[in-house]
Each structure stands twice: as C-alpha cells, then as structure tokens.
Amino acid sequence: MNYRALVTDIEGTTTRISFVTEVLFPYAAKQLPDFIRQRHEQAEVALQLKAIRQLMKQPDASLDAIITQLQAWIAADEKITPLKALQGMVWRLGYQQGHFTGHLYPDAAEQLKAWQAKGVQLFIYSSGSVEAQQLLFRHSDFGDLTPLISGYFDTRIGAKKEISSYAAILQHLQLPPGQVLFLSDVVAELDAAHQLGIATCQLIREGQPAGSHPTAEDFYQVNL
Ligand SMILES: CSCCC(=O)C(=O)COP(=O)(O)O
Ligand SMILES: [Mg+2]
User: Fold this and answer.
1) pLDDT for 109-127, tens place per residue?
2) How far is the CA of 65 from the centre of ligand 1 (A)?
3) What's the whole-model pTM score?
4) EC class of this enzyme (predicted)?
C-alpha cells in the first residue's frame, strides 16, 4: 500500500517515553515557577495564564495558585492546552541552552527521512504543543529534522482519543482516509483514527498493551 501521508505520534512512537516523563516533564516542573514569575507580563505567557484562570474558574487566581495548579496537572500528565503551551516555552529555553536534545529512535529518524524522500508527506500529532514538537525535531539527536515535516497538530485540533480530531486532521490533509497512515503506541488513539477509515499501525516498543491494529516494534517494520 502506498500511503500519501503519514501522521505519527511522538511519545512512545518516534521517541522514548522516558525522554518525556523523565527529562521534559521534570524540567518543566522545575523551571515553570520562576519562568511564570519572571515572564507573566509577556504577551505569550499572559495569554496562557488567562486561559488557566478560566479553567480554574478563578479570574483572580494568584501566580502561586496557578503554579500549584500547573504542578498538579503535570503530575497527573493532563493534556491541557495552556499547560502544554507553557511547557513548550520552557522547553524552548532548555533546548536552546543545550540542556537536552530531542530523543528519536534511530529507526524513526532513518525511516522518516526515507519516507519523505520517496514523496510521503509527514505530519506530527502529539498532545505536546506544536512548538514543543518543532523543538524536539529541530534539536533532535540527529540534528534538525524539521525540513522533513509538512505539518504539526496538537490539542488545539482536539484531544487524541476523539474521532473528531482525526476528522479535522483529514480536512487539513485533503486526502481520503485510506491514503493516510497513523502511527501511535496508544490503542485508544488508533481506535479513534480507525473509525474514520484511516490506516493504523501500533508501535509496541516498550510492552505497551496491544489492541486489534497491525503492530510494529520499530519503524523498519512499518509498511508504508
Ligand atoms: C513533543 S514532546 C512532549 C510531549 C508531551 O508533552 C505530551 O504530553 C505527549 O502526550 P501524548 O498524548 O501525545 O502522548
Ligand atoms: Mg504516544
């Protein structure tokens, strides 16, 4: 089957889960308090703080109250859009200062290059913000891979377990669902995409629970 577009998840698919849970999340949890206290008047930060106060239903929530709420959301791995946006801003500084590079499995880096070279359009769909996605690929272990990527989707298009999110992605791609392949390690995400006729393949790299989708242990085993 020759798919015209590939949409791939990041955490657990292109990238080791522990890079997100043991590097990125702890870094954000440590840096966010000072980042918010120092930059809360900057427009991009203030916009997210306004959204967080709305979610908290506390229009006058203090910075300390917001920081406490953010730490709770991080600890619970909540996929809340303003949290993900602020994490992306903090990770921007971490990548730029060389505190870490973006983990990619070697097979993922190699195959993304090969698939793009043969004309497959590559897209990323992650709960991490589009900025966080671009940072990971721009500062990857294999250099700047952003030239390979045609587009990025995050929670602003919808949550990853919602069918409507994949309908919106298809609308963006302007392709029939059968010409699109979605890669993820999470069955519920693949189930949602499959409901629309999008082809799916589950990456099982670290013993993730399997579903009814075709599976692969690495990108070399993915039939594109
Ligand atoms: C772009 S690396 C950071 C990924 C992230 O913040 C995240 O929450 C991943 O969530 P997902 O639902 O895509 O596994
Ligand atoms: Mg994942």
Assistant:
1) 999 999 999 999 999 999 9
2) 24
3) 0.96
4) hydrolase
**Complex ipTM value:** 0.98
Q: Which residues line ligand 1 (CB under 6 A)?
A: 9-11, 20, 24, 79, 84, 87, 126-128, 132-133, 136, 160
Q: How many angstroms does the Cα of residue 36 sit away from the middle of ligand 2?
A: 28
Give the phi and the psi of residue 134 in degrees, each rounded to 5.
-65, -35
Helices (H) and strands (E) in the chain, counts: 9, 6
**Contact between residue 184 and residue 208 where contact means Cβ atoms under 8 Å apart:** no
DSSP codes joined into one string, 119-149: T-EEEEE-SS-HHHHHHHHHTBTTB--GGGE
Does residue 209 sit in helix, strand or coil?
coil
- How far is residue 51 from each of residues 30, 82, 115, 143, 160, measured CA to CA in Å? 21, 7, 38, 34, 20
**178 near 163, Cβ under 8 Å?**
no
Lookup result for tokens 């239903």: 57
Question: Which residue type, as a one-letter code, is found at position 89?
Answer: M
**Cβ < 5 A residues, ion ligand 2:** 9, 11-12, 185
**For the CA of 162, the nearest ligand:** 1
